[in-house]
Amino acid sequence: MHETGRSAIQVLAEALPGCIAGLTFGKSMRWNATNVSYSRPLRWLVALYGPQVVPFTYAGVASGRTSRGLRPYDSPPITIDDAANYARIMQEHSIVTNVEVRQATISAAATELATRQGGIYRGDPDLLDEVANLVEYPTVLSGRFEERFLALPAEVLVAVMKKHQRYFPVYAPDGRLLPSFITVRNGDVVHLETVTVGNEQVLRARFADAEFFYKHDTQHPLADCVPQLATLTFQAKLGSMLDKIRRLEQLTPAIACLLGLTAAETAVAQRAAVLSKADLATRMVVEMTSLQGIMGGHYARRNGESEAVATALAEQYNPVSTTRPGLALALADRLDSLLGLFAVGLAPRGSNDPFALRRAALGVIENLVANQMPCDVRAALAEAAKLLPVPSDAQTIAAVLTFINGRMEGILRERGIPAAVVRAVLAEQGHNPYAASQSAAALAEAITAPDWQEVLEAYSRCVRITRQLQEILPVQPENCTMPAEQTLWASYQAAAASQDGTLARLVAALRHLVPAITTFFIDVLVMDEDTAVRHNRLALLQRIASLPKGIADLSHLEGF
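^ that's the sequence the OP posted. Answer follows.
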């Protein structure tokens, strides 16, 4: 078959509209008869292949070679004669096309301005990335606000600055907030004083709002907010946020037991569960949801709750909890959401994940791994299932575990652990993220040993010859009459006695068994005509094949 080629311009003209349409945004708009969705109205399109325009139309706009300059300069037209000259021509019109250059410019200027005020610019990669993509010609400036606002919790001030205004806070060397901020203007330094005053006025109004919310919230105890959660729906079939709290009151101590918490730690976790969602009904969190948990901890501390309870509340949404009561609450919250939403048919599909269940699953894994805490997540899910208002059977629990394992597999692969090793470990320990992470690392190291293939081959012979058996056969040691049988039985007993559930002990045991296994298969006819003899030999090999049970399924490994 012969297909005539087309010019690059023809191919690009056909492909570029689809490329633009493939760009997605958190919020989009539709502004003309074309009904095209984009983050902002498209006013011009520059599409060049060398000196030639790539002709196409998108959202009612035809492509060309004319761009526009900075808005403070009335967006003058800029003609691009050749694609190769694009960056130079835009730079001549004060537009910095390289986002990394814009980031470096902002960071350097922000550091200098903070230093002048005796403060520190800590940097914030996410905010820096956002701001650098909002401007084309960054000019950094600093402003101040009244010191009275420093009476508000620092987290509130920082949240207002970052979320609402995209400002960078300035810190004192001891970590306190200073009454200053740093922001970025898109343009030059002309009338910069006026721009600074404008930014200060806007921030003052934002802080005044936060001050009002804070005073309103602190007029009553945090516990008074709990009944109000009855009006806040978690999910139609799973009830209100108050219903969720009632489940957490019971699930948190059950998980605390699985984690081995003390009675005192369990009491802290349970009290935190009672107040865990109360701040969702406060004015501050309604206005700034990023402060959920943080404000709960702060208000609880003001109300006389123990520091341990306040800390557990404050860190419940963190990727990793630093206290054991906080860990129990964080796990209970995430597992209740995961199992409940799976049970009502709201498991994530494709990129659609409105309840952030992927993040919840990662939170379960990261909390347990970072805290080096073994935990049977399957058992925890079974406890959660007892409390749900909807049926949740073993199949649903298995689906949630599979979902969590999918996230766990991604984490382990990112660490460079081979896919076969990950599958082998998760097949047996997918319900225990911390133990699985430890075993995966140990097995990844074990398979690099020079004699590993010999060890795996010896073990695999025991598995392959017994895998079709439908029952576990009993071993009768007195019927092990041949020296090779007796040696293998003694070696197995020593190997079994040495096991402590770790991958390292397992590998050591299998390595120790290699000579006995090899001699056994040379000297002994396993499939003897005598049924009793055959079954006894198969039973012995079954015991060896079962040694990795609960640790790793070695049949997933390459070379098995």
